[in-house]
C-alpha cells in the first residue's frame, strides 16, 4: 500500500512528487498481523518504513554522522582501508573517500560489530576486524552514538527478520543461528556532495551518471535498514518507474537484499533503487544486516521442511562470508581493489554468481 503526494513542508523539495511507503510502528506487538503486512510489502514493493524504533535517537546520530564526515582530511585518512592506504591493516572497516569518475559520488564510513568474544574458529575467518575510530577524547561521543545506533538497529533488524520468518511459515527463530556469536553486519554512514562541487574529476561520466550520486542497484545481503535523515533523493523502482521516497525524519526505510530474495525463490523482492544528486550535501546511513562468516547458505534452504537455517546442511554449502566477498567485488565499484584474504580464494572463486542472481523483471542480472 503506497500513496503519492507532493511534499509541501519543505520549499526546496517542490520539484519532486513523493511516494509514501507503508509504515510499521515498532511499538506494535501484534506480530502475526505485522508479519502479514511485511510479507505483503516485500512481495510487491520490496520497501517499507519502520517508525518508533526503540532506542534510536536520530538527532544525535545525524549530528555524529555530520561530525565524522566533517573531520579534517588527515583524520579521515587515518581511518582509510588498506586498498586506499597500503600501510593500514584494516581491509573491511573504515573510511572510503570520494573516487574520481565513480558512478557513486560519496565518501563513507563502515563500522563493524565488536569483534570479540567470538569462538576461535569464527574469529580466524576474514573480515572480522576492529573499526578504526578517531582517538581524540573529545570525539568519543561520535563512536558512542554510532554504537548505540548500531545496537538499536540490529535489534530492530532481527525483529523484522523473525517476523519475515513467521510470515514465510517458518518458526520466528528460523534465521537466528546465522547471527549467534558473530555477525558481518555493517553500519555505514554516507556523505554525498553535489557533483557540481567538483571534489573529484567527473569528466568521464555520462549525463545519466551525473544525475545520480548512487547508481541503480539492489542491496546484496539479507536486509537493509536506512536512515535518510529527512533528505530527499532516494528513488525506488516501483511499477516500472523510479519514484522518490518521501523523506521522513525518525523513520528507517527497510528493503531486502538479493540473497534473501533468492532464498525465497523471489517471492520476496530485492528492489532496485538509486540516489539522485539533490544539488546539496546529503547524509544517509544504511545498515546492511549480514550473518556471520560461517553461516551456510545452501540452495533450497527455505524449500525444505527445515525449522532452522542450520539443520541438515550439505557439507559443501557455500559460506556467507565467501559469497559476500564474491558479490562485493563483482558488483560494487568501491570494492574493485579488494584482495581476498587468507586461504579463502578458492572458496570465493567457487561461488557461482548465477546461483545468487536476482530476477527483477525488466532488469538483467549482469553483475
Ligand atoms: O543514501 C541512500 O539513501 C541510499 C543508499 C543505498 O541505497 C545504499 O548504500 O545501498
Ligand atoms: Fe542500497
From TrEMBL:
PROSITE patterns: FE2OG_OXY. One of its GO terms (molecular function) is metal ion binding. Coiled coil: none annotated. Residues 183-291 form the Fe2OG dioxygenase domain. It holds the Pfam family 2OG-FeII_Oxy. The keyword Oxidoreductase applies. Keywords: Iron, Metal-binding, Oxidoreductase. SUPFAM superfamilies: Clavaminate synthase-like. InterPro entries: IPNS-like_FE2OG_OXY, IPNS-like_sf, Iron_ascorbate_oxido_reductase, Oxoglu/Fe-dep_dioxygenase_dom. Belongs to the iron/ascorbate-dependent oxidoreductase family. PANTHER family: 2-OXOGLUTARATE (2OG) AND FE(II)-DEPENDENT OXYGENASE SUPERFAMILY PROTEIN-RELATED (PTHR47990). This is 1-aminocyclopropane-1-carboxylate oxidase 2. It comes from Hondaea fermentalgiana.
